Amino acid sequence: MSAPAALITGGTTGIGLATARTLHAEGYAVLVTGRDPATLARARQTLPPDVTVVRADSAAPGDADTVAQQVRDRFGHLDLVFLNAGVGRFAPLEAVDEPFYDEHFDVNVKGQLFTLQRVLPLIADGGSVIFNSALGAARGQPHWSVYSATKGALISLVRALAVELAPRGIRVNAVSPGPIDTPALTKLGARDGFLEDLAARVPLGRLGAGEDVARTVAFLASPAAGYITGVNLPVDGGLSAAVPA
Predict the structure, then answer these.
(1) Of 81, 82, 74, 83, which is closest to residue 2 (Cα–Cα)?
(2) Which of the residues 28, 101, 147, 227 is marked catalytic?
(3) Which residue from 62, 61, 43 is spatially nearest to 53, judged by alpha carbons?
(4) Is residue 162 part of a domain?
(5) How many domains does one find in the chain?
(6) Alpha-carbon separation of residue 208 from 1, 223, 231, 234, 244 (angstroms)
(7) 3-state DSSP assignment of residue 121
(8) Contact, 6 vs 78, CB < 8 A?
(9) Which structural domain, as residue segments, surrounds residue 67?
(10) Among this protein's residues, is 147 annotated catalytic?
(11) C-beta separation of 229 from 166 below 8 A
(12) For the chain (length 245 residues), average pLDDT per consecutive 10?
């Protein structure tokens, strides 16, 4: 019997990279995608040698065809698709222009949808699809309007696709990470004390780790979650449940 196979978009850094390591340790054959040459090179160096690292831009539907062909050639099927690739930049409404808007929706929504469309014939009946949304889809924050809109769109996709793909037993869910200690968060919180202040707002008293999200993805893909579909699961240390300070 062949190993279960997983595709992780945006799998060369942060949450995606942690998920690749976690799934590989659980026996998955793993293919990750990324578009930045530096993170692609680091992923090839740091991930186990049997993890496949493929350059692909989630905003380019033609690259999704390449990814599907790579999966077909290497694995022949998929059991798990983690649609994790995303961009997030923040700007007040008056500073939003069409390129800013298009970049976010092209990567965070269009890219995820068409990647799933291209690999759908390869997903085994009973497989699992997981989108990476964000806490910002449900909590209003200044300057997050476009980013939050893309993440909210993913949650709507999850509900519709969970029903559409249910006849094949394919479960579709989302995770919504809160503040996770990744390079992206570090870059966002460059000012002194930002990360400490953010951690203090989390009821569990710490920032999340990429592995916290990775283990949640592994759970949602496992038989233990076999009757769960169409849900968005926060991974945020209780932040979404807390009364704002």
Answers:
(1) 74
(2) 147
(3) 43
(4) yes
(5) 1
(6) 35, 25, 21, 12, 18
(7) helix
(8) yes
(9) 5-179+210-237
(10) yes
(11) yes
(12) 92 96 98 96 96 94 95 97 92 92 95 97 98 81 86 96 98 95 69 75 92 98 98 94 70
